[in-house]
Amino acid sequence: MTALLLAIPLLPLLAAMAALCVGRRVPWGGGEFVVIAVALSLILLIFNPDGANLSATWFESGGFRLTIGLEVTRLTWFVAMIVASTALGVGIYSLGYMAERPDRPRFFAELGLFVGAMLTLVLSSSLVLLFAAWELVGLASYLLISFDYAKAGAPQAAAKAFLMTRIGDVGLLLGWLLALATIGTTDIDALIGAIGTDRIDSYAITVIAFLVLAGAIGKSAQLPLTGWLPDAMIGPTPVSALLHSATMVAAGVFLVLRLYPLFEAAPAALVALFWIGAATALVAGLIATAEVDLKRILAWSTASQLGEMMIALGLAGPLAASFHLAAHAAFKSTLFLAAGAVQEETGTRALDRLGGLIRAMPFTGAVFLVGALALAGVPPLSGFWSEETILAAAAQSGVATAFLIIALVLLAGIYVGRATTATFFGGRRPTQMGEPGWPMCAGMGLLALAAVALGWILAGQLGNILPFPVEPEAPTAWRLLAVAAVIVGFTFGVWRGLAPAFGSLPAKFGRGLMAATEAPGIWAMQCARLLDPIEDALDSVARFIAAAARAMASAAHSAECRFDVGAKRTAGGIWRLARDTERVEVLGFGRGGDALAAGIAGSSERLRTLQAGQLYLYTLALFVWTAAALVAGGLMLWL
Amino acid sequence: MTAGLEIIAFAICAFIAITGALGMTTTMSMFRSGIFLMASFVGVAGLFILLAADLIGVLQIMMYIGGMLVMILFMVLVMHDPGGAMMAGMDMSFVERWFSKGLVPREPAQSGHAKHMHGDHQRGYNDHHHGNAVQPDEPNDRKAAAMRSGHGAHPMEHTDDDEQEGQVMHHSGDKHDDMDMGGMDMSMDTPVRPIAVWLAAAVSVVLVSMLLLRPAWRIIDAAPDPDSARSIGHLLMEKYMVAFEGAGFLILIGIFGAVLLARPSTHPDDPSRSAKVAIDERPEPIADDGLTPLAGARGSTEHHMHRHHRPEEHGA
Amino acid sequence: MIVPLTAYLVVGAILFAIGVYTVIAQRAAVMILMGIEVLLNAIGLNIIAFWRFTAPTDYSAQIFAILVITIGAVEMAIGLALVMLLYRQRQTVEVDAYAELKR
To answer: B: neighbours with 3+ CB pairs under 8 Å?
Structure first.
């Protein structure tokens, strides 16, 4: 079974590739591959309850050991089951949703990619693989949001979603790198195992926890990175149902759950988590009561519910968070699918155009109502049970937190009642429309059932499934207060109907919030734009320097040319001088020497005649000398 | 002796001495110059005797004339043109002409003698020159006139020259040929001759002027001892023994050297070797001098001994 | 002596001059040697004249004259031998032909 563990995330990926390759020729456009693959993964997952571990060392370098692997622990199994089940339901639904679309193979491929990546993320035993899957999930979200790339605003929404989650991803990256640097390995179990020991100091744990928290905030659309979620609703409804309600946004919560010992060892992070979650939940809930777009209401609701989960986590109630995760996945996806059906049939999502659809789409209306009641927390639906556990955890921490939960419950009831009433009830626009196709109905129905039944199933069993301690139940007073809040809220919402529950203030607040959260981004972009003049200035400076250098070089070159000319002239002059000297030497010394030699030779020739051997010359010379001697002697003696 | 006699004797001796020397220099004939030299020696000897140095005077005659002159004459006879025939026909100065009276110039030679070198002219005999050589008119007249000139040496010369005259006459014929040959310049008129004349004149002038301008020598008016020979002999043996012996040694060495030098050479081509064995096939005929020829011999071997042998010269 | 010393010396001078001329101007080797004889004669005459007039009692001058004559004779002998050798070589007695004695 361990080998089959690998197949769990791989099957959807392979189905995605199959859908991409041959989806056009297949009747459902490749969707059947994805659905079958997800079903198979679900089955494999069911038969791999616990203990299967498939990890290996990716590579070792410089004392760091990077591991990859899949691991089925109780937590990972639980969340993987949630993911796979939701994906199955949404997949079936999307078979019908994408029935008329020609580019559905691409959709199913992206969907398969997402499911595979999400399963890898959940089942990962290595921080590296988790982060890689995290990024892949973000990529799939981007692709899916902008599936209808021609739709106005879709690419922008996808880019916004991607970038905002990316900001959080930086924190996660730094977090796991720090963990790697501290421990030397990316194995999550090793990290968890090393928390109590001396291998990590508490300061490092705190830093890692905060960094991871940043990632969770980004992915789960908590403040301040909330803005992308409502805009992401522009994508197809299955996407909204799967990604942005049940799974991807839950990944943040899952991350905290997975590394919960880390957070436990860093109480500051838990406190931050609580406050962020509380703020998000309140703000998002308030905004949801004023939204006009059905899906946007649901998006803000998602953010609020995630905030509740974060509150639960922050209050040291991981079990409650997990329960609510599962329940939220069920009912929120149900709601989204129903909203999608409504949109498909009516062509609009605006609440002021919808109304009175219950008569035209009874099944869809029933499903939506079920989901809405579950969201509100009406017993005995799943929402009630998960809210109970959260309330218990909150009551543990104090009265204020409990009241916070009560308030959140109230808000949830208000906005979901409003949405339901505005969409399905009331007599505004009775139009001629029918139920959607059977796949959509089947998907919706499945998830509605889950929304109904999940609470019962998991209510008392969760402690056995998950490794978290079970919270004691909340005091009865709070529970009764919670139920009362549910009823009050829902009734209020229904009564108010279309009109915003609390007036226009939430809307304004929402807009202000959006502006506030967008402001840093806009400010960063303007800073970036400011860089342009600086860059131009630097460029011009550089150009100036280059021009100056060039001018210097040309000046040097011209000087050198002048030197060259001067040197040439000098050389020419010297050469001429040498030539003249040579001429003087040849004529003067040469010929002069020759003449001298000739003269000497001639004179010697002439002198030679004196010694020609002619005797008379010798005798003549002798007697001439004698005569001269006589004369001289005579003169000397007698004068 | 009386003063006049002394003066006359002095004059005559001086005249003979000077004239002999002059004649020796200027005459064309080598033999005549030898004779003139002898005359000069005689004159100087006479002067010696006048000066009461009789030993020296006699020695002068004995040694110079008896020794050196004979040597010279032998040499002249061997090598030279004793009769002066070669030069006789040339242009001469007055002095030379006067001293060369009676010499017979050689007639123009045949072509066969064209290749003769200078020395060959001594013996280029040809038959048909005999006739010419015998009695040319004018040379004979000149000869006669020369006989009458009063040189005591002439008759001697003539009688000695009979045999040689033929040669001379024969030789004179070659003169023009020699001139035409252009092999060697036979002219007496060397470029140095005027200079030599002037130099000689200058030397004599210098000496004479030195004499005339001299300070007075101490003249001792003592008479020399007539028995000077004895004194000289004593001196030679006593005071100047070394000089005497040295002179004797020098003579000995000189004799050795002269003999050594004059030996026939060992080189086979040396002409001196021919002196021993040379016998001319056709010796030059001797001019007909009126004497009865000797039987057999057509010329003395001795005559030919020193003749330069060049067989090819006998061509026609 | 009636005839003065000067007369003898003049004769000697003239003889010397003729000898000089002969030695220089003659082209025949034997003639040159004869000129040398004349020179020696003049020298001897000078010696004897001076002896007679200045030291008639001292016969050393005569011995000197004898020596002069003797040496002159020896020199003549050697010279004539040389001339004869040269005559054999060059077949001529012209001293012009003796210009290259190296041959």
So the answer is: A, C
- DSSP label of A232: G
B-contacting residues in C 15-44 (Cβ below 8 Å):
15-22, 24-28, 30-31, 33-35, 37-38, 41, 44
Whether A487 has a pLDDT exceeding 60, the answer reads yes
Identify the closest residue of chain C to A609 by CA–CA distance. Answer: C99
Render B237-263 in DSSP notation, one character per residue: HHTTHHHHHHHHHHHHHHHHHHHHHHS
Q: Using one digit for the tens of pLDDT, what is the confidence trace for A282-295? A: 888 888 887 788 88
Model ipTM value: 0.91
**Is the model's pLDDT at B189 over the cut of 80?**
no
Residue extents of the structural domains in chain C:
5-98
Q: Count up the domains in chain B and report the number.
A: 3
Residue B148 reports pLDDT greater than 50: no
- Per CB-CB distance under 8 Å, the chain C contacts of B204 are 13-14, 16-17
The pLDDT value given to residue B168: 37
Q: Kindly state whether residues B137 and B194 are assigned to the same domain.
A: yes
Query: To probe the interface with B, which of A609, A610, A614, A616 has the most B CB atoms within 10 Å?
Result: A616
State the Cα–Cα distance between residues A298 and A283, nearest whole angstrom. Answer: 14
Query: Looking at the domain assignment, is residue B316 inside a domain?
Result: no
Could you tell me if A620 lies within 8 Å of chain C, comparing CB atoms?
Answer: yes
Which residues constitute the domain of residue B231? 227-275
A71 Rama sector, left if φ>0, alpha if ψ -120 to 50, beta otherwise: beta
- pLDDT over threshold 70, residue A189: yes
3-class state of residue A187 by DSSP: strand
- What's the rounded mean pLDDT across residues A164-178? 88
Check B190 against A616: CB less than 8 A apart. yes
In Å, how far is C11's CA from the nearest CA of chain B?
7
Give the mean pLDDT of A229-258. Answer: 85
In a domain, B285, yes or no: no
Using the predicted structure, report yes or no on whether residue C38 has a pLDDT greater than 90: yes
The beta-strand segments (E) located in C1-103 are none
Please answer whether residues A82 and A98 qualify as being in contact, where contact means their C-beta atoms are separated by less than 8 angstroms.
Answer: no
CB contact under 8 A, C98 and A612: no
Average pLDDT, chain A: 83
Query: Cα dist. A114→A81, A92, A628 in Å?
Result: 15, 15, 145
**pLDDT band for position B20 (cuts 50, 70, 90):** very high
- Interface residue A611 vs chain C (CB under 8 A): no
Choose among B14, B193, B255: nearest Cβ to C11: B14
Give the right CATH number for C5-98 from 3.60.20.10, 1.25.40.10, 1.10.287.3510, 3.40.50.300. 1.10.287.3510
